[in-house]
Amino acid sequence: MEDLILNKIIETSNNNITVIDSEGIIVHSNPEHWVNYGMKPGTYKGTSIYDLEKEGLLAPSIGAIVLNEKIKKTILQHTKTDRVIMSTGYPVFDEKEELLFVVSYSHDQTEILELQQQYEKMERKVKGYQTEVEELREKEFEQNGIIARSSAAQHILKTIYNISKTDATVLLLGPSGVGKSTFARILHSHSNRKKEQFIEVNCSTIPEGLFESEIFGYETGAFTGANKQGSEGLIEQADGGTLFLDEIGELPLSMQAKLLKVLQEKKIKRLGGKKERTINFRLVTATNQDLEKMVQEGRFRLDLYYRLNVIPLQIPSLEERKEDISYLVQDCLQKFNSAYNVKKRIHPSTYDVFTNYNWPGNIRELENLMERLILTIEDEVIYPTHLPANFNTFQTNSSFSLDNIEQPLKVTNNLKEILENTEIQIILKALKKCKTTYEMATYLGISQPTVIYKLKKYKNKLDHS
What we know:
By secondary structure, the chain is α/β, with parallel strands linked by helices. It has 4 domains: about 1-110, 2-Layer Sandwich (Beta-Lactamase); about 145-315, P-loop containing nucleotide triphosphate hydrolases (Rossmann fold, 3-Layer(aba) Sandwich), CATH 3.40.50.300; about 320-390, Helicase, Ruva Protein, domain 3 (Orthogonal Bundle), CATH 1.10.8.60; about 400-465, Orthogonal Bundle (Arc Repressor Mutant, subunit A). It is built from 18 helices and 16 strands. The chain has a 5-stranded antiparallel β-sheet with strand order 2-1-5-4-3. It has a 5-stranded parallel β-sheet with strand order 7-10-13-6-14. A two-stranded antiparallel ribbon has the order 8-9. α12 crosses α13 (about 350-355), α12 crosses α14 and α13 (about 350-355) packs antiparallel against α17. The longest helix has about 35 residues, at about 110-145. It is elongated and about 115 Å long. The two termini are about 75 Å apart. GO terms for molecular function: ATP binding; DNA binding.
């Protein structure tokens, strides 16, 4: 009776169950189980699993493996019908630890594996698309007139892209020379106002006596020497577009109140005029000063500060964009070589100096230095010795030590060979530690272009090391 019930349970189970005895003879099995192996449905009671294995129907047999090893095992079987079966076998012992039976369960994994393969294929495609997107993003960054390989610069650009379609007021913060005006132009070029005017005003360059007439415009006869037809101011010229007020901290207090009124009412009145004109522009401002401190000192209006400080963006200094330095140098080199019809080159050791220098004048300092070097250095290659004296104080920060070299250096009296062998060992050590040339550059305390140069120089020797 119990045997009858057991047979019925196995035959009707959704799991594919097979029970064999200690000789490998099938005593119970699910009839539908064998269809996966290319066999007709049946119990196959009394059949030897060793015979089925020899015929290639069970490749291999989970029962035979468990009988041999006497422990639980799980395997994948590939059948003649191109199915993939996962089988798990359990040994059954008596009180004397003698093996009596092996109970095995099998599950068809073909569809799951196919789904897994499809997923992996799709994942590879997604990674490929992500790579393409990153490449397009890098091209877009460079096409916008700015090199942004560093995470700091890319973060700012992504933020600018996110807010570009709005009309929110943006305050660009950062030291002199970081390219605030360039970021302001990118913001305008991605905005809904990109087809309209971008008016840039440097508040520090307009004399206070002329500020009102320049910014707000004037009517006929407003002052001695005024144009007879009057003149529209810079704010009016920005109507429909973007007004960029650089060095906003230099805006006279008397003009701050008038600018605040324009921002609040969206109307403007020319100097000497009575008529108010409705105005529509987006305001972007920039400063290298601490406006909060200026507010506390009474040099900047608090209400205007709140109007300007809607979306403050801190533009990173060049020292915070180490990854961009070599690309910026290359960009300047190409630009000035073309402008002055020369073919100057930068020695890899010079890149090291540039990378470790702190650049207090930021991108403007780098551009001015590159132009000066190209115009004044007679040699075709620019070496560290050609740089100004303040560049000589840099120190290379490296996490590498010669004590870390694992392989002994080749014994030789030739100084050139000694230096090359040492350099190769150092590079090999870095290759083991780092995944990218940028990581190697950081690890060795040199620039990324220098790493690439060294890898190419010693390629054959490194391949055989």
